[in-house]
Design brief:
single chain; alpha+beta; 6-stranded mixed sheet; disordered N terminus; binds galactinol; binds calcium ion
């Protein structure tokens, strides 16, 4: 600890006079300028209907080996497997034109599948598995290349929608005649089940956490036909809801398989429902382009093309072009290594520690993969658990910490104890990392620098804020203590929840621990693997967490309700207690009001102003303490074609959505021999089942 600060620290710990205290406070400033870093690769901007439309074509084609199944009477002809008007990708919008069938994309992931019941809340292991299996009503990943004047969600399972005159009701039209990968019809039975028995059932929380509030408090849904339903809202024209109908919050599951497992329809229990589709069960019906046919724990998930996939190219070729998908079950760091080495085919390079080596390897002439950096959309914050009324059933110490977290001086102290410059350099040197104040990221559509409040690193100021919060080292052991009568006046000890599947998360957490310790706050790491971390995060049983921020702080329009505690379970760090009560601090209520007003507004200028208000509230009050933000890079093997220019690894969604994998192909002469089950299709659903051949 530097000489002068040690003296000041001592003075402060021993309770120097308030006057002296204020002298030490360092006022917030504007955020420090981010180092220049230009994204590589410019998107080719188009209007949505230049990408795809829904229409009937004269004829349709399929891979030859699939025709063998038709001739063997194992499958109806392709025309009957497709909707009357399938989704048609325009060849003119494909970077490399119409593709050819064959080959496989070899993903490597760090997650582990809990099972296939997405709407029941099970994780499929992330890394593009759930994004590929669970198609949603609208789609937003590809919006990175849509013209601003046409920037609205793309249709997907919902092919069109109309607002009522007064804007209180939205009528949604589904693709007609689309089928699940087992041939069962996709229709409003699946919508009804998702809404009534998942979204509206308090006992069920789907993966990615959809609740009624996701679509606006008080929203109702009514099925009005086999392919049509209406949603009725409590405010007019909440156009935001069209984004909530995309990934991850309106991706219906196969009701013909799930309803019998659900207690509302005769199922044994909610646990049995959640765990009703274990990872060993193959060929669970999906609307996605590939179906799981083999699963070896901690080893691999193999998928084969879905013969009923409801999308084609404008020459009538049923998609996808790739016949097989692999997901090797390894680590996220290994994903980067294998992608730049060429033994894997895809990576979202998002862990800054791997940047230098990945850049070096991919710069070599014989590098197997192309690496392209995008904008600064990967960022981390430190979030305090702001619930003071029982979320996560805190014990006495934990409750004392919650009270501290709800004290602005404590949050300011934590923020100013963090040296973000040093934290960033501990990950990677160079122009990648920017100091992050919290809230919306610099350079994004709704960001306003003048509305962003940044608390600069200053141990003295941190100490002064901690003193203001009533903390002093009463037993002189270098750790600040709770005031007399609170948690027995013991040393302040916090737990810090961290996702152990990422080196970056762990490195940042270790840096935070060391810096807070230096400021007199003791921190114990609570490091958990992905699925457990997600469950603990959502249970509220934690004091602080290191968290990689989701899409809402990049786009605002995607997952907007998660920007604040707009509902009992919409916030990442402040949810309701068992009784459903949310004890919002005054400025949190103002944040909620700004977000709700944004959702209800159709006036671009007003929406911009509302987000300035939101940004000031979030950064001034430290709803989250920003740490660092940096760009990620997309790494893809060079044999793949139709990779859209300028595709970011993360914006409205992850690159596994953004690059539109169903129209990615490998030219015939570049195809490798990586297929594990060539010329096969998904077999019957069941544990121990596998892919089948036509003969
Ligand atoms: C990308 C993504 C695709 C989840 C997950 C994982 C979970 C979180 C987050 C990312 C992984 C990859 O992120 O890191 O590059 O492939 O899967 O879904 O972090 O633990 O809960 O939000 O998306
Ligand atoms: Ca002490």
């Amino acid at each position: 600890m530097r000489q002068d600060s040690r003296a000041v620290m001592a003075a402060l710990l021993l309770g120097a006079s308030p006057g002296a205290l204020w002298a030490q406070i360092v006022e917030p400033t504007a955020p420090p300028a981010a180092p220049e870093f230009a994204a590589q690769g410019e998107p080719v901007f188009v209007n949505r209907d230049e990408m795809y439309t829904y229409r009937a074509l004269d004829a349709y084609q399929e891979p030859e080996f699939v025709t063998a199944f038709v001739e063997a009477g194992l499958l109806p002809p392709v025309k009957e497997r497709l909707p009357a008007e399938p989704l048609v990708y325009e060849a003119a919008n494909m970077p490399d034109g119409v593709g050819v069938y064959g080959d496989v994309m070899r993903h490597v992931i760090g997650g582990r599948p809990e099972g296939w019941n997405y709407v029941g809340g099970q994780s499929q292991g992330w890394g593009g598995i759930d994004i590929g299996l669970s198609e949603c009503l609208t789609r937003t990943g590809p919006l990175f290349m849509v013209n601003p004047e046409d920037l609205q969600p793309l249709p997907n399972l919902a092919r069109s929608w109309e607002w009522s005159e007064d804007g209180m009701t939205l009528t949604v039209n589904l693709v007609e005649g689309a089928k699940w990968s087992d041939g069962d019809p996709f229709d409003t039975e699946d919508i009804r089940f998702y809404w009534d028995d998942v979204v509206m059932d308090p006992e069920v929380t789907p993966l990615n956490g959809a609740s009624q509030e996701t679509f606006g408090a008080g929203t109702t849904l009514e099925v009005t036909g086999p392919y049509t339903f209406t949603m009725t809202f409590t405010s007019a024209f909440p156009e935001q809801v069209l984004y909530a109908m995309a990934y991850g919050t309106f991706c219906p599951g196969p009701s013909h398989v799930l309803a019998p497992l659900h207690p509302a329809h005769g199922g044994e229990s909610y646990d049995a429902f959640r765990n009703g589709l274990p990872p060993e069960m193959m060929s669970v019906p999906v609307m996605g382009a590939w179906v799981p046919v083999e699963y070896r724990p901690d080893d691999i998930v193999v998928m084969r093309r879905n013969p009923y996939y409801w999308k084609v190219d404008s020459e009538g070729n049923q998609l996808p072009y790739l016949d097989e998908m692999h997901y090797r079950l390894s680590t996220w760091a290994d994903r980067d290594v294998q992608a730049v080495a060429g033994s894997g085919d895809f990576s979202n390079l998002e862990q800054a520690e791997n940047y230098v080596e990945s850049l070096r390897r991919s710069a070599e002439d014989d590098a197997p993969a192309r690496l392209q950096f995008g904008p600064r959309t990967i960022g981390y914050s430190l979030y305090p658990n702001l619930s003071g009324n029982g979320w996560g059933e805190p014990d006495e110490r934990e409750q004392a910490v919650r009270e501290l977290n709800r004290d602005e001086n404590f949050r300011m102290g934590v923020s100013q104890a963090i040296d973000r410059q040093r934290l960033g350099e501990s990950l990677v040197k160079g122009p990648f990392i920017a100091q992050y104040a919290g809230g919306l990221y610099a350079g994004t559509a709704y960001y306003d620098e003048a509305s962003t409040v940044f608390y600069p690193y200053s141990l003295e100021s941190a100490a002064a804020h901690f003193a203001e919060a009533g903390l002093a080292d009463t037993d002189g052991d270098g750790v600040l203590n709770f005031p007399e009568g609170t948690a027995g006046g013991q040393n302040v000890q916090l737990t810090l929840l961290v996702n152990g599947d990422y080196q970056t998360d762990k490195n940042l957490a270790e840096g935070v621990v060391a810096m807070l310790e230096e400021a007199g706050i003791q921190v114990a790491l609570q490091t958990l693997a992905g699925n457990d971390r997600d469950a603990t995060r959502d249970s509220g049983d934690w004091d602080w967490q290191v968290f990689r921020n989701p899409t809402e702080v990049v786009t605002v329009v995607q997952n907007t309700t998660q920007l604040a505690p707009t509902g009992p379970t919409t916030s990442w760090n402040h949810r309701a207690n068992e009784e459903g009560e949310l004890d919002l601090l005054p400025w949190e209520q103002e944040m909620v009001d700004a977000v709700n007003a944004f959702i209800a507004s159709r006036d671009p200028a007003e929406r911009q102003e509302l987000m300035k208000t939101y940004q000031r509230l979030v950064t001034e009050n430290l709803y989250g303490v920003g740490l660092v933000a940096y760009p990620g890079a997309l790494v893809i093997n060079k044999r793949f074609a139709n990779i859209p220019a300028g595709a970011p690894i993360f914006q409205f969604n992850w690159a596994e959505d953004n690059i539109i994998r169903e129209r990615v192909f490998v030219p015939a002469d570049a195809q490798g021999d990586h297929e594990l089950h060539p010329d096969t299709l998904p077999g019957p659903m069941g544990i121990g089942e596998g892919p089948v051949s036509a003969s």
